[in-house]
Design a protein that fits this description.
By secondary structure, this protein is of the alpha+beta class. It is built from 7 helices and 15 strands.
């Protein structure tokens, strides 16, 4: 979720999973309209005290953080986003011709098939701030393990130190240091035990985790996976009542291979 929902932080995990399941039809409609481009939408931040406090910043510091992440502090912000669009288009064109993606890092070795799936260039057209490239893997292709650096946050509740093991595209083992009950409840939802998105954050103006996925998933030097519904425009067919992004730092000992070629290392592209 993009919005901070602290009022749900003490709600029973079972009720949260029931709520998520009940919204399945609305989730399907949203993703369908996004893919068809019949939904005109944009999400952008307005600096406020609750978000600043959640990010452990003063309001003034948070304002500067927001403006910097959106390139508003640049002499020509439009030029900067056009530059991002051009660079990410080159990356997406490269990855569109790749079949196998492998993520390697701390307690992580995860292999996925992305053949004939389209990589999407997120460069300031729907979200602000923006900065990521993503796709959806073949639904039964994920094999291996990934351990996430940052807590997964769902409706105000934090699930810390998440480790997932995949076999044949499905989560077969899952554990968390904190919030494991919510993790297991969410994974029990239809389609939530498969990957709906793999993405690489490219916005290096976002330098810290803020517990707001609008910013966090774009952070340069990170990857994230989303459990649940995939974006139809990428070619994904998995459907679920949730689309839950969880983030991993790749700046230390992080590597990504495309068809056995190392193209990303320690948070930076090599191509």
């Amino acid at each position: 979720m993009i919005l901070i929902q602290k009022h749900l932080s003490s709600v029973n995990p079972g009720k949260i999973s029931t709520y998520a399941s009940a919204r399945r039809e609305l989730t399907d409609i949203f993703f369908k309209r996004v893919a068809e481009k019949s939904l005109r939408w944009v999400v952008l931040p307005y600096p406020a005290n609750p978000q600043a406090q959640e990010a452990s910043m003063s309001l003034e510091e948070y304002e500067d953080f927001v403006y910097h992440s959106c390139f508003v502090d640049k002499e020509d912000p439009i030029y900067e986003w056009k530059r991002v669009d051009e660079e990410q288009r080159r990356i997406c064109n490269y990855l569109d011709n790749v079949s196998i993606i492998r993520f390697v890092g701390e307690d992580t070795d995860l292999v996925l098939n992305v053949r004939n799936r389209k990589w999407i260039n997120c460069s300031g057209k729907d979200n602000m701030p923006d900065g990521e490239v993503f796709t959806c893997p073949i639904e039964d292709s994920a094999n291996g393990t990934i351990r996430f650096t940052y807590p997964g946050i769902y409706m105000g509740q934090e699930v810390e130190d998440v480790l997932l093991e995949f076999n044949g595209g499905k989560v077969v083992k899952a554990r968390a240091a904190e919030g494991e009950e919510l993790l297991q409840r969410l994974l029990s939802l239809e389609g939530a035990d498969r990957i709906g998105e793999i993405a690489i954050g490219t916005n290096y103006g976002i330098k810290r985790f803020t517990k707001n996925m609008l910013f966090d998933e774009k952070m340069g030097g990170t990857i994230h996976l989303a459990l649940g519904t995939s974006y139809p425009e990428s070619g994904g067919i998995n459907r679920s009542s949730i689309h839950w992004d969880i983030l991993k730092d790749m700046t230390k000992c992080g590597e990504i291979y495309a068809d056995n070629v190392l193209f990303y290392k320690n948070g930076r592209f090599l191509i």
